[in-house]
Acyl-CoA thioester hydrolase
Amino acid sequence: MMTHNHQIRVYYEDTDLAGIVYYANYLKFIERGRSEWVRTLGVDQAQLKAEGGGVFAVRRVVADYRAPAVYDDLLDVQTRYISHSGARLVLHQAVLRAEKLLFEAEVTLVCINDAGRPTALPDRLTRHFGEKPPE
């Protein structure tokens, strides 16, 4: 449906002793990609929280590491909407160097309120997804 691209440069601090991107840093890269995707949809996450609209928390990540990235690579982080319902949002995210797939993940997010309880995804976000989720 909708795919967002965000470029990231690999810095020395992103690599491990072997000179490749440390595996946990891919989670940071896709977090940045998600944040930029939400921003391009016109949702200000700080404002959303301040208005009591909740915050997003990662509930589940299923990741597949395919090939290494190294220092100075220019990476594309792709974020693609899959589905949503109630408080849940599912995205597919991929990290590529040129056309080569290096990493991909299915990420499930939940929107939670200040008490840490699930709350409905904000309308200002879901209106971009087409039809409303089932009640």
User: Anything to note?
Assistant: The beta strands are 3-9, 55-65, 74-85, 88-97, 100-112.
